[in-house]
Amino acid sequence: MTGVEKLRPEHKQRNAFVYARQSTAAQVFKHHTSTERQMELTGAAEGLGWTPAQVKLITDDLGRSGRYSDNREGFQRLATEVSLGRVGAIFSLDASRLARSSADWHRLIEVAALTRTLLVDEQSIYDPRDPNDRLLLGMKGTMADFELVWLRQRMEGGRRHLAQKAELRMKQPVGYVWDGSRLVMDPDEEVRRAVALLFERNRTAASCTEVARYFREQKLLFPARCGYQIKWKRMTRGRVKEVLQCPIHAGTYVWGRWRTETRLLEGQHRRHTRLLPMSEWR
Question: Of residues 23, 69, 92, 101, which has the active-site annotation?
């Protein structure tokens, strides 16, 4: 590890924080090696002179994306400790573990420089007060931020390519199941009868509300897909409308009906998904 000469006695008088993060719960369960490597940074901190009692491990954000900080309690706690001057060094595998947002990353660097806090990864020790280190840290943060953009673009391109060939698997509506590479009617006769009854009642009913009322008056439940299982639930107007507006029930393959956007509401980042008009479907 380079940059050991930047480590001063004043840094070892404060705590060393090890920040561990994985973006999703699936990564936590499947990629044990990465999590273990992050945990082992506590040993690296002790090897550089901190006592075990001084090394604080933050694992609150395992399974949480680094795109925003308002949903990461661990990062917020770390930033608070840095601003109070209680942190001598922050250990992480790389910049992307700390933040995938340039704004959060540069704000952390700024505070770390003011409180003389070092940043440490597997390659080197960085001092945010040093112009060269500050430039390098800024580049690391920017690359981590744009890496998410590139990743999303590649994934979106792959999904679009499959969708153009009608090969992209989507959540099957109630009444259908995937059989290899194609959708077929659900083999469960009771499910098929329930769906058929909904369409039959819709031909004579005046509204979705009237269809839902019929099911409730007849004490009939309607199937709902929960993962790979079917659960029978009370019929509602919303369920009737959902089935009637599903393109697959009309024999049509459609992709791109929905758009998910991130908005700032009451200081918090919130994802909002809305249905697009048909003219904007891809």
Answer: 23
